[in-house]
Amino acid sequence: MTVLPDGDGAKPVTMTIPNKEKKSQAIDPPETVKALAGQLKVGDKVKVNYETTSSTCTFLSGEATGSLNTENDTPFTFIAVRKLKHAGKDYQAVVASKGSLTWSFLIPNTDSGPDPELLKKTEEIRRGNQVKLTYEPFQFTFQLKDIEVVPKEDQ
Questions:
Q1: What is the residue-wise DSSP string for the chain?
Q2: pTM to 2 decimal places
């Protein structure tokens, strides 16, 4: 989990999420983490308790404290569409950033491959374009619902 602490000049902090079973090789976080991951979107505020060692930061608990997402939210910057594997399946994903952080938004698969309508929309978008993304939490990442270029403001 990557979080950005409050405060000017704060840098992102990446925390390890422990599995329920320490010996498990599969991703299997505690139920509280599954519930939290299923409701958060980029920019939402969370209160996090964690412990640190000299080299790691381990998540202990967390709770959502408020959504910062609004219709007029800052757009994402489009980077690319890439192939990736998630939970053992192949996906196409939109890679986009906001500030210093980057996310992958999975394009849903149909019986014949990635959603053709979403894939067609991404073909017209260029690196650096500002985009509005509609997405939802999906298996500890995000699934894209829609993407549109934000028109440049007249100056």
A1: -EE--SSTT---EE-B---SSTT--S----HHHHHHHTT--TT-EEEEEEEE-SS-EEEEEEEEEE----TTPPPEEEEEEEEEEETTEEEEEEEEEETTEEEEEEEPEETTEE-HHHHHHHHT--TT-EEEEEEEEETTEEEEEEEEEPPPPP-
A2: 0.71
pLDDT confidence of 73, banded at 50, 70, 90?
A: low
Q: How far is it, in rounded angstroms, from Cα 123 to Cα 92?
A: 12
When pLDDT is cut at 50, 70 and 90, the band that residue 26 belongs to is low
Q: Is the pLDDT of residue 155 over 50?
A: no
